[in-house]
Amino acid sequence: MLNEFLSHLFPRVVLKRNLTISYTFCLGGLAFSAFLLLLCSGMLLLFYYQPGPEKAYGSILLLESSVWGGRYLRSLHRLCSHLLLVLLMLHTLRVVLTGAYQKPRQLNWVIGCLLLLLCVFEAYTGYLLPMDQLALWATQTGMELLATFPFGPLLRGILVPDGIGHPMSLLRFYALHIMLVPLSVLGLSFLHFYRIRKNKGVLPYL
């Protein structure tokens, strides 16, 4: 799978017509590039962020006011998250409109939908981390909506066992945001690219 992923990123040959700008705009590749930027900027933010209710907001203020390039780094992380979701939505729309979800690509369509849902959830878990008023109220709204779905109260109890913004809840959102969800997205991305190569979807001559 890793070899197929690398071959997808660095193909042996590319036809000239595949280098022209088309209706696809390489949306999947652009989305993955935005995800890589999120990983890099997020790892740098880890050096200053403190996942505690009393310290989280202060660490954000310190980052933006006293760390060289800190405000730029946080803004880059936030803008890349918005860009990732927009690109994924456009990529999904393109797949639907062109019928690229049909046989033999049904499995890859399911993988792509899972990637979209995971990235939305990743953005949601990151929203609470600054621990400002916007973060608290947005997370509260999300949890109230979740409680209306089947098994929603159970999931809500897992995500926020001691209330929104409390130590255990913040720690769970933090663990999901920096480790569990990104690793899942990365693994599914490898599988997604592998299936593209296996189905000869974008480069049938390889």
Automatic annotation (TrEMBL):
Domain Cytochrome b/b6 N-terminal region profile: 1-205
Any Pfam family matching the protein: Cytochrom_B_N_2
GO function terms (MF aspect): electron transfer activity; oxidoreductase activity
PROSITE patterns assigned to the protein according to its UniProt record, in alphabetical order: CYTB_NTER
Keyword Transmembrane helix (UniProt): yes
Transmembrane stretches, start-end: 21-49, 76-97, 109-129, 174-194
Entry keyword Cell inner membrane: no
BP-aspect Gene Ontology terms: respiratory electron transport chain
Protein's recorded name: Cytochrome b6
Source organism of the structure: Geomonas limicola
